[in-house]
Amino acid sequence: MLKFAPILIALIYGYVMYRTSAARSSRDLARKSAELADTALREQFMRLAHALDLPRVQVFLYDIDPVNGLAAPDGKVYITRGFYQKFRAGEVTSEEMASVVAHELGHVALGHSQRRMIDFSGQNALRTALAMVISRFIPFVGVYIASALTNMLAARLSRRDEFEADAYASALLHKSGIGTHAQKSLFLKLNKLTGAHGAATPAWFMSHPKVEERIKAIEMNEAKWQV
Questions:
Q1: Per-residue model confidence (pLDDT) at position 220
Q2: Which portions of the chain are predicted below pLDDT 50?
Q3: Positive or negative, the Cα torsion across 122, 161, 86, 50?
Q4: For the purposes of burial, counting CB atoms within 10 Å of the CB of 89, is it exposed (0-12), middle (13-18) or buried (19 or more)?
Q5: To pair with 160 at 20 to 30 A between CA atoms, which of 108, 128, 204, 218?
Q6: Coil vs helix vs strand at 180
Q7: Residue limits of the Peptidase M48 domain (predicted)?
């Protein structure tokens, strides 16, 4: 039983670390955000709300510069000020902003935050177990190999979540009448908007799928709806 103690400790440690990080993020979000009030965007958000049979979709403006959207563990959806400024500058349309919100609503509806907590704890335990096993055969570097393998798994799980949230967003945008064109057009702008240059990170370590793969998946869903 004692030989499994490090794995159990790693599992508990991963859970505690995730909850601590989530609590810290929630406090930061609460301190730096307020509800996003924009007439042009409100119209698009109401279309999403009607498609979901909700009175409204509440979106918060997170006062940081990076271009991003996010879903908090408590289910709130945020758009960063950096993203909103791109909209105000005419670089992003209101429909494209709605596609970001639809994607984050997908993360909320599909329980990705809760799943990520379980995944994070499990990955921490797996990293410890792999390091123990590999180090028996490859001393000193076993821990680095275990870490790399676990990071690959974490990236794969993250890409799975992104594809699922994309599919949810596509269905919601289709139902709301906004359509998936805005979702695809935003993806084509994404690298420029975020300042990402791609290619620097190997595909198996990327936490988000490549833009071309995401668009292809959306078009496959569109084809199913047209049958």
A1: 92
A2: 204
A3: negative
A4: exposed
A5: 128
A6: coil
A7: 38-219
The residue behind tokens 């006062």 is: 63
Longest dimension (CA), the chain: 63
Burial class of residue 160, CB neighbours in 10 A (0-12, 13-18, 19+): middle
Q: Quick one: 217 exposed, middle or buried, by C-beta within 10 A (0-12, 13-18, 19+)?
A: middle
Spatial separation of the C-alpha atoms in residues 142 and 117, rounded to whole Å: 25
Q: In what order do the strands lie in the sheet with 59-62?
A: 33-35, 59-62, 77-80, 69-71
pLDDT confidence of residue 41: 95
What confidence tens digit (pLDDT) does each residue in 116-136 have? 665 555 666 656 666 666 667
* Cβ partners under 8 Å of residue 109, min gap 6: 168
Question: What local confidence, expressed as pLDDT, does residue 123 receive?
Answer: 62
Written as one string, the DSSP assignment of 80-139 is EHHHHHHHHTTSS-HHHHHHHHHHHHHHHHTTHHHHHHHHHHHHHHHHHHHHHHHHHHST
Contact (CB, 8 A) for 185 and 211: no
